[in-house]
Structures are given as C-alpha cells and as structure tokens.
Design a protein that fits this description.
Low-confidence stretches: none
Oligomer: single chain
Structural class: alpha+beta
Distance between the termini: 107 Å
Number of helices: 1
Helix content: 10-25%
Shape: elongated
Largest sheet: 4 strands, antiparallel
Order of helices and strands: EEEEEEH
Radius of gyration: 39 Å
Mean pLDDT: 78
Strand content: 15-25%
Length: 158
C-alpha cells in the first residue's frame, strides 16, 4: 500500500497589513492605584476585545490584555501579533484614557432646559363675548325622592 504524502503547504505571501479602525471605550476610571481603568476595544467594527486594563507601574501606564492565570504567571487571551500594531494599540487605548481623564477634570456646567415663555398680557387673546344658545328642549325638573319609580338624583329608571 502506498504511503500517503502529506499535503505541501506554501507560506502565505507577505503583505502590508491594513490599518484597523479602533473604537475604544474607557470604564471605571481611577487616578491612582494599580488599575487605572478598564477598557473595551472594537477593532474594525467586527472584533471586540473586552477586559483590557490600563495599569499603573513605575515606568508609566500600559495596557494589560485580558488573560488568565497560569502556573507560572499570566497568559493573554488575545494580543497584537506585530510590534507595530502592539505599539499602535497601546497608544490608542492610553490616549483614550488620557482624554477621558481630562474630560473628567473639566468644569462641568449644567444648562437648565429652556422653559417656554408665556406671551405678554397684551399679546394674549382676550376672551370674546360668548353666545348663549338656548337648549333645544327644556330640561326636565328632577323628580323628588318621594315619587315612586325614580332613582335619587332625578333619573328615571325604566
């Protein structure tokens, strides 16, 4: 019986990576401590990374990717594959953190919603003379409670 030959794989041609659009959301901002903020990043509108953290260390802030504890440390669940994209990812998330931090330190102003202004007295329409129209048929006098067959309040029961 002839041996099966393994399929030959050819390496994928090297091509220039397409820059991805990154939408970064910063949550739970802190100004001190080990964890400065939580981050969520959507890449190219089609892949989301949740659970990233902006961490504080002696050399400065950095972005920690979501991961799990392993016997000898932590392993990232997802991560940038090239040094260029790693640098761009870090810079984009850290810039979003700094912008959000600056926005929190800006003085907040609250503008009350405008109330509708009432027209001045002169501008209001004065009520005109009201015409009284006589009823088409005269109202019947309410029957007293002493009459039989009538309910209180003047309405006859039929």
């Amino acid at each position: 019986m002839p041996k099966k030959s393994e399929p030959k794989t050819t390496p994928a041609p090297q091509r220039e990576p397409v820059p991805l659009e990154m939408d970064v959301r910063i949550h739970s901002i802190n100004t001190s401590g080990k964890i400065l903020a939580n981050a969520s990043v959507t890449l190219g509108g089609c892949f989301a990374v949740r659970g990233g953290k902006v961490m504080n260390r002696e050399k400065g802030a950095f972005v920690s990717m979501p991961g799990y504890r392993f016997s000898d440390g932590y392993k990232d669940v997802c991560f940038p594959c090239t040094p260029e994209f790693h640098k761009r990812f870090q810079q984009t998330v850290l810039n979003a953190y700094r912008q959000e931090l600056a926005r929190l330190h800006e003085p907040q102003t609250y503008e009350r919603p405008r109330q509708r202004e009432k027209p001045a007295f002169e501008e209001r329409a004065a009520p005109g003379p009201q015409e009284e129209t006589p009823p088409e048929r005269p109202e019947e006098a309410p029957a007293g409670p002493e009459e039989e067959g009538h309910s209180p309040g003047g309405m006859a029961m039929q």
